[in-house]
Amino acid sequence: MLSQQGSRIEVALDGTTVFAQCRVPGVVPGDLVQLKGDAWNRLVVSISPRTTELRRLGADGRKVKPIAANLDLGVVVTTVTDPAFKPRLIDRYLAAFWRGGMKPLIVLNKVDLGTADELAHARSELEAFAAVGVPWFEVSCSTGDGIEPLREALVGQLSVLVGHSGVGKSSLMNALSGHRLAATGHVNEDTGKGRHTTTTSHLRVLPGGARVIDTPGVRTFAVDFESAEEVEAAFPEFARHARRCEPGCRHQGEEGCGVGEALARGEIHPGRYKAYRGLLAETTGEPDPTFGGFVCGHCGADVVPDGAGSGHRNHCPRCLHSRHLDTRPGDRASGCGGDMEPVAVWVRRGGEWAIIHRCGRCGAFSSNRIAADDNQFVLLSLGARALANPPFPVDRLDQEVV
Ligand code: GDP
Predict the structure, then answer these.
(1) What band does 298 get if pLDDT is binned at 50, 70 and 90?
(2) CA torsion sign, 290 to 291 to 295 to 300?
C-alpha cells in the first residue's frame, strides 16, 4: 500500500487513471493506479508500470522528479515573443521527451504578437527541429488561429504541455477546450518572465477526445541524463554522422569526428550542437576539452583557461582570435569550427570588456568577454578601427551594449 492519501486522487470512469497531482508519493497525472476502498477513503495499492514518463531533475540537481506518465506526445509550448523565443530550452524538452519514450511536437504561440523578423527567426530555428522529425504548429490563443489543426493533432492521444512560464500553456488549454479551465497570468514587462499560474499538473479531456496534461511553467529544465550516450541519443541527427567516429568519440573537436565534419558542412544545426555540448558537460561534469587549454589555431600560442574574467577562455589572449566552436555558458558562438577574427571591442557597464568576432568560414558574428589585459595593442587598434568607421554607438558607451 502506498499511502492513505488516496482520497485526493480524481480518477477516470474506469477508476484507474490519475487526473490530478496528488499527495501519494511518486504518483503523477497519467499514472494508472489500482485502488481499494470507497469513494471517501480510497487507497492506492499499486501503480502500473509506466509505458512512458516525463521527468526532470529537481532544483538540487540530483533528485529526479516524475512529471507525468503514460504519454503518447510531449508538446513544448513556445512563443514568437513575450517571452522571447528560446530554442535552447526546446532542445531540453525534446531531449526529455525522447528519453522518456514519447513523440515530440512544438507549438509556436502568440503569432499575433511578433514582428515579421521575430516570426522569421523563430521559423528558421523551428526548421532545424522539423529536420529531425519534430513537427510544429503555429497558433494564437488570442485570435484562435491555428487552434483547430492542433486540436485535431492531439485527438486520441495523451499529451503533456510543457514550456517556460508565460508562453501561454493555460491559455492554450482554454483555447483547446473551448472554455475557460485554467487561470492565466501575465508576462512581466520588465523581466519578460511569466508568472506561474498553473501550480499543479492536471489531466483534462478535451472536446473531440484528446487528453492533455498541463504542467506548471518552469524557467529552467534539467534532464536527468546518466551518461554521455544518453545525451547523444537525444540528438538523433548525429547518429548517421557518428558512425564514422572512433569509439568513445564525444564530438568535441576530436580528429576525424564525423559529427564535427557534418557541423562544418552545415549539415548539423550549430544551435543544436551547442545544446549537445551544454548537456554533455552538465551530465558528465567533465570539462570540455576545448577549455582545458588549447593551441591557438591562428597564431599558435599555448592558451590556458584562466584569467579571462569569466574563468575560462575561448579566445587567444595574444591575437584575440577564437574558434567558432564554443559551447559553454559565456561562449556565445557555436558552430562551424572556423577561425574567428576580432573585429570590434566593446565596453560593458561595470567596465567589463567584450570582443566581437566574425567567423572567417561562415561569416557568423559572436561576442565574448575578455580580460582587459589581453593584447592591449590589438584592443586599442580595434577600438580605433570602430571609432574611425562609424556608425559606432559612442553615445551609448556607458550602457550595456553587448
Ligand atoms: P502559462 O504561464 O504558460 O500558463 O501562460 P498563460 O496562459 O498564463 O499566458 C501568459 C500571458 O500571455 C497571459 O496574459 C495571456 O493572456 C497571454 N497570451 C497567451 N496566449 C497568447 C496569444 O496567443 N497572444 C497574445 N497576444 N497573448 C497571449
Answers:
(1) low
(2) positive
For 50-214, CATH number? 3.40.50.300
- Cβ–ligand 1 contact at 186 (below 6 Å): yes
Query: Looking at the predicted structure, is the pLDDT value of residue 119 above 90?
Result: yes
pLDDT of residue 8: 43
Q: Is 169 exposed, middle or buried (0-12, 13-18, 19+ CB in 10 A)?
A: buried
Q: Alpha carbon of 188 to those of 82, 84, 194, 196: distances in Å? A: 9, 12, 6, 11
In whole angstroms, what separates CA 269 from the centre of its chain? Answer: 14
CA of 138 to the centre of ligand 1 (A): 14
Instruction: Give Cβ neighbours of residue 278 (< 8 Å, ≥ 6 apart).
Output: 88, 327, 328, 329
Checking if the pLDDT of 355 tops 90, the result is no
Which residue ranges make up each domain of the chain?
1-49, 50-214, 312-389
CATH C-level class of 1-49: mainly beta
Mean pLDDT value of segment 112-121: 93
81, 184, 204: residue to mutate for ligand 1 pocket, most atoms within 8 A of CB: 184
Predicted model pTM:
0.67
Interval 99-125 mean pLDDT: 94
Please identify, by atom number, the ligand 1 atom nearest to the C-alpha of residue 195: 2
Whole-number Å distance, alpha carbon 166 to ligand 1 midpoint, is 6
